[in-house]
Write a structure and sequence with these properties.
single chain, 10% helix
Length: 376
């Protein structure tokens, strides 16, 4: 009896010492999708029915459909961070035919929540002219983001930059001190100013001493910012016309001191900007989505057309640039019509900024960019 009593007491003591694991504080959507053969008829590609690897900064989830007005109520399914809940209920049927539906994700511990807008939009016709007049602050109020307006007035966030990555290195930077900002000194109105910035002590620690100013068609995924920086850039968006050339205006001044990835000065080397574009097939032979990143945007075997400005001399006055697409691979007209090609268009203040080589202070201004498409 005495031993039973001691065993019981020991069990109680041990149990009291074991604390419950803290509940998860995260409240993120990791993936969203719709399913079903009846639903599939609204989409050009099967992969358009799923949004995977949702960046942590994104709070607008957009599915692209053939015609929004023809949508019947749909059920959207979500993968959430462990323990999180969502309202309206995961997989419940909602009407998306007119307005986005707002979902609230609550963390497992109940202390945190995030609102996500889920929207279904019609495939936007290829934009031809980009004057960069339309911009706003990011949701956290730290840096500029650019958007285009569709025919219905809705904002299309087709442009991205590395500003979110710079925020990790320099969390106290002012909005105008980010690598990619809006500037009032445009050809006529606003333009984009791209500046190569130092990432300070953080950059030296992680062997990423500079952050080139960049702007590109696509999206930025911050989850690779510390591990594989080139994977943060998701290059390209779907287009339904074949590009022929890109024109626009630029100004450029190189920084004083060119440095390598260890922030050592490279004597007699002068920084250069970069402007280029590629058209590539956005699905592989198995039907899986293809997305180019900073490490293969100029070398992927899925590229069918490429354009690059060969020389961008320093200039304090606005000067026009032009680049023509080259490539012999036949364009599949049916695939093009069904959004089977992506177009990537990239601007950078340091040509080798992707390998963290360049000159702090190098500044590239971009305005009035126009893409000419084949008309027949």
């Amino acid at each position: 009896m005495r031993y039973s009593y001691c065993f019981a007491m020991l069990t109680m003591l041990l149990t009291s010492c074991i604390k419950d694991e803290p509940k998860n504080m995260e409240c993120d959507v990791l993936e969203a999708w719709v399913e079903g053969d009846d639903v599939a008829r609204h989409f050009s590609q099967a992969t358009d029915m799923r949004i995977s690897d949702v960046p942590s900064s994104v709070e607008l989830l957009t599915f692209t459909v053939r015609q929004r007005a023809s949508l019947t109520p749909l059920a959207v399914h979500f993968t959430l961070t462990p323990g999180a809940t969502i309202a309206p209920a995961n997989g419940s049927t909602q009407d998306f035919s007119k307005d986005p539906v707002v979902y609230t994700v609550t963390s497992e511990d109940g202390q945190w929540h995030r609102n996500y807008k889920v929207d279904f939009v019609e495939a936007m016709l290829p934009s031809s002219r980009h004057d960069f007049e339309d911009f706003e602050l990011s949701t956290n109020g730290r840096f500029h983001v650019w958007f285009e307006k569709g025919d219905d007035g809705k904002k299309e966030y087709i442009w991205a930059s590395g500003n979110e990555g710079f925020m990790i290195a320099s969390p106290n930077a002012a909005v105008t001190d980010y690598p990619t900002v809006s500037d009032e000194d445009g050809v006529d109105g606003c333009c984009v100013r791209l500046t190569t910035r130092s990432t300070g002590s953080w950059g030296k620690t992680f062997k990423k001493p500079i952050a080139a100013g960049n702007l590109f068609l696509g999206a930025f995924d911050s989850k690779y910012a510390l591990t594989n920086t080139l994977k943060t850039t998701l290059m390209g968006i779907a287009y339904t016309k074949e590009p022929v050339k890109v024109t626009g205006y630029y100004k450029y001044s190189p920084g004083e001191t060119f440095t390598d990835k260890d922030f050592n000065e490279v004597a007699d080397r002068i920084d250069e900007p970069s402007i280029y574009s590629v058209l590539y097939i956005n699905h592989d032979e198995q039907g899986d989505e293809v997305m180019l990143h900073g490490d293969d945007v100029l070398s992927s075997p899925y590229i069918v057309r490429k354009a690059q400005v060969a020389s961008l001399p320093a200039t304090s006055q606005w000067r026009q640039f032009e680049m023509t697409f080259e490539g012999d691979t036949p364009i599949d007209a049916a695939l093009l019509a069904n959004r089977g090609y992506n177009l990537a268009l990239v601007f950078s203040s340091s040509k080798t900024g992707d390998t963290f080589e360049g000159a702090v202070g190098s500044t590239l201004y971009i305005d009035n960019v126009e893409i000419t498409f084949r008309t027949e």
